[in-house]
Amino acid sequence: MEASLILKTARQRAGLSVRATARLAGTSASTLSAYEAGTSIPSFSTLNRIINATGNRLIVSLHKQSFDETRITEIEQLLRFADQVPRQRPGSLHYPLLADMVKQ
Predict the structure, then answer these.
(1) pLDDT in tens, 54-65
(2) H or E element at residue 16
(3) Which of 2, 66, 82, 104 stands 20 to 30 A from 26 (CA)?
(4) The pTM is what?
(5) Is 95 within a domain?
């Protein structure tokens, strides 16, 4: 989730205006507005300070992604197939002329 959405959600849940939240967090309303609009990105410590000013707590967690074994198998099969496809075709390719095909 982006910082702008986290800030706006926390402020709105607390029922605070931008100006009141900025005052509580020790920053300016214009700076907080820029963070919420996504035109400026706060540092982690600033983000945490503003979230705390709304009466919320920021919790960050790290989760290992799990991969779908079926998808991994499909990708492995595709890569094996790609290795078997010749990189360059020997000789030139010849196509029948459209006029010859129409005559038949």
Answers:
(1) 999 999 888 776
(2) none
(3) 2
(4) 0.60
(5) no
